[in-house]
Predict the structure.
Amino acid sequence: MKNFERPEIGTKKSKKPVDSGKEKQEQTSFKILIVDDQAGLYSFGRNKNVILAENTTEAEQHLKSGGFDVVLLDGHLDQNDVFENGPDALTHWIEEGVSLPPVFMMSADEKMQQKGIEAGAKGAIKKSLLHSGDIAEIEKAVKAL
């Protein structure tokens, strides 16, 4: 009898059987949108479950297409605090009626993490987690928050 994965975050449900002989990255249907102006530094290869956006405008276009389980938002885009200039991305997306999955801040700065949580983010993760390129590890960290 095969086990089936059932993601707890987001609305997308996987009915893909889990084969213990395959790599973790291939087992997951967890879809991530990473918003970071330095997204090119991450090594996810051609993984279709990871979409990279270099700014909030590009991220909004991806979000409108739907299907994401989580958004990872860098707190500093183009060396600017995403909460200092005008409405923050989270408020803007909500005002625009964009359907949002859980959003997590990526920042080592505790003040930035707090600003994100106050704006509606579910929590924060360390950017260093993304450098591994391991989606299963990212999924595990996000679900633990």
Summary: The domain at 30-144 is CATH 3.40.50.2300 (Rossmann fold).
